[in-house]
Design brief:
- Helix content is about 30%, strand content about 20%.
- By secondary structure, it is of the alpha/beta class.
- The protein has three domains: about 90 residues, Winged helix-like DNA-binding domain superfamily/Winged helix DNA-binding domain (Arc Repressor Mutant, subunit A), CATH 1.10.10.10; about 230 residues, NAD(P)-binding Rossmann-like Domain (Rossmann fold); about 120 residues, no CATH class.
- The chain has an eight-stranded mixed β-sheet, with helices on both faces. Strands 13, 14, 15, 16, 17 and 18 form a six-stranded mixed β-sheet that branches.
- About 35% of the residues are buried.
Length: about 550
């Protein structure tokens, strides 16, 4: 008998369940086995990469590998050399082992699953060496973010994000990244503000009519959070932005409304191996997706054959195709812009922190029924975007001073006398009228020749354009500078000899092309009904001259 207070309890009535102890390896094995049993990990599918599993499960590499070995020994997964781990089918030969392993994650006997606290199979990673910091919430505008387990202030402060498009979506993304304190924002847009933008663009005001969207958005971001650094480019991202700029970004966010610009950003990001976040909205519908080179499908993989044929129109009639693209308008609401823009900003923040994302998948949001679902795209093996540049040679050269002959000479030292240059956009060499057969020498990049200029001044009919994108050394215009043929500052050019490529960056342009010094303050702002921010000369490209004059933005 055992005495307990004034009551004695017969020894045989005491039933104490045994204490079970599972190692961390057992727990990981159990979670993966349970996922195989319930179909979350389907037969024949490949497990995520080790780095992603480590981050999702919050364990060390050694623990994960031991758990994978346990699953392999129980014939639940198999290793394929140089490929990865794959799920095997569960049948009579391994069903018992799967259930036994999965049982390690079950609640102890006598306790129901409902009584157990809910534990998600995947958890957000915590910054491993994050120091304890108690912020002063009276003076530190980012202070509350330090309470987030995974937040790393230095990464956010030092991050560089390129936002392409400053319309409804772009306004939301810029506003969100600015409030979160992302340290360096580069904003690109070729359009000007009009009254219709005011119904869905939080950064614009009525007095901003006809001003550059990129410039005003950058100024307002700087006014919201003076601690960040901004730069803007008023121009066409498909032709006016050097690849060296994208190469130095931590993330690219596309807030675009046409396929040509999306395709260009997709290829640029793939070439320099940078992730990008795409968003699209229309009325109450929207979608968001992340593309990472080499991981799943890219944007071009998602295009139908009809969409690819539509894009190819620019090769048969490039001037008309370009004119139609610039006229495109999409009806949207500020509510769907807030939803999708918020999702894009969140994905950019995850990329900055190195957190897991789901590349090659699309999240659809239907505001009519408040429904959301995710779908995975299928990568195309023959996709033209799937090409990442090799080693990039940084040249102390500038686009406005370096000639085609200069660069061709450098390429032939590396690749031999047969080397040639490839331009990213078509160079119109001449326009010929099919009626009167008059021919005009042009030698201008495609983006600088308007649809109207393509017509014959005598007959009025659209002239046929002769174009090239290769420089072989036989041209009579090798003395022309790279800028004059449409090569932007800090660009990366390709050279080839029929067997291999070499890549050359115009790194001499770096100080002026990428500076994040627009709207830097030399004196405190004086707010008297309007915001006055010092700014450099208004131009179509970024500059790094001392600030001159003022840009007055009505509040």
């Amino acid at each position: 008998m055992i005495a307990y207070g004034l009551t004695t309890i017969p020894k045989q009535m005491i039933k104490i369940p045994p204490v079970t102890h599972h190692s961390l390896t057992d727990t990981v094995s159990a979670k993966l086995a349970a996922s195989i049993l319930d179909g979350s990990l389907k037969t024949g599918t490949q497990l995520p990469p080790e780095r992603e599993l480590i981050s999702q499960l919050g364990v060390s590499r050694a623990t994960l590998r031991q758990a994978l070995k346990t699953l392999e020994q129980n014939r639940l997964i198999e290793a394929r050399p140089n490929v990865g781990w794959f799920v095997r089918s569960v049948d009579e030969s391994n069903m018992a082992q799967a259930k036994e392993l999965a049982g390690a994650a079950a609640p102890p006997a006598g306790r129901s699953a409902a009584s157990e606290p809910h534990t998600a199979p995947l958890r957000v990673p915590i910054a491993p060496d994050k120091p304890l910091h108690i912020p002063n919430l009276q003076t530190d505008r980012q202070g509350t973010f330090d309470f987030i387990s995974w937040w790393e202030r230095d990464k956010v402060r030092d991050a560089k994000v390129l936002i392409v498009g400053a319309g409804a979506l772009g306004n939301e993304v810029i506003k969100n990244l600015t409030l979160m304190g992302v340290g360096h924002l580069f904003i690109v847009d070729f359009d000007n503000i009009e009254a219709a933008n005011l119904s869905r663009s939080v950064l614009f005001r009525e007095a901003d009519n006809k001003r550059s969207k990129a410039e005003v958005a950058a100024a307002r971001a700087k006014a919201i959070n003076p601690q960040i650094h901004v730069q803007y480019f008023h121009g066409d991202v498909t032709t006016g932005l050097g690849l060296g700029i994208l190469r130095r970004m931590d993330a690219v966010v596309g807030c675009l409304d046409n396929r040509e610009a999306r395709l260009a950003i997709n290829r640029f990001c793939y070439w320099v191996n940078k992730p990008w976040v795409d968003g699209a909205i229309q009325e109450l519908l929207g979608l968001m997706r992340v593309f990472v080179p080499g991981q799943g499908a890219c944007y071009e993989c998602t295009l139908t054959e009809q969409a690819l044929r539509d894009l190819s129109l620019r090769y048969s009639c490039p001037l008309l195709a370009r004119q139609n693209i610039l006229l495109g308008k999409v009806p949207t609401t500020p509510t769907i812009a807030s939803i999708i823009g918020g999702m894009q900003s969140q994905e950019a923040l995850k990329l900055i922190h190195g957190m897991p994302v789901e590349p090659g998948k699309v999240v659809h949001f239907n505001g009519m029924v408040n429904g959301m679902h995710t779908t995975a795209y299928v990568p195309r093996e023959d996709c033209e975007s799937h090409w990442t540049y090799g080693e990039i040679t940084e040249l102390p050269a500038r686009a406005e001073r370096t000639t085609l002959e200069d660069l061709l000479r450098i390429a032939r030292v590396d690749l031999g006398p047969e080397a040639m240059l490839e331009l990213d956009q078509e160079l119109i060499t001449s326009l010929e009228c099919p009626t009167c057969h008059t021919k005009e020498e042009i030698l201008r990049p495609l983006n600088e020749v308007s649809f109207e200029a393509g017509h014959c001044p005598t007959c009025g009919v659209l002239r046929e354009a002769t174009m090239t994108h290769s420089i072989t050394g036989e041209e009579d215009f090798l003395h022309r500078t790279l800028t004059s043929v449409g090569v932007p500052p800090l660009h990366i050019l390709r050279a080839l000899n029929g067997q291999e490529y070499r890549f050359y960056e115009l790194t001499g342009d770096l100080p002026e092309a990428l500076h994040f010094r627009h709207f830097e303050q030399t004196e405190p702002l004086k707010v008297r009904g309007r915001i006055r921010l010092k700014n450099g000369p208004r131009s179509r490209g970024p500059v790094d001259r001392p600030t001159q004059g003022r840009v007055k933005l009505h509040d």
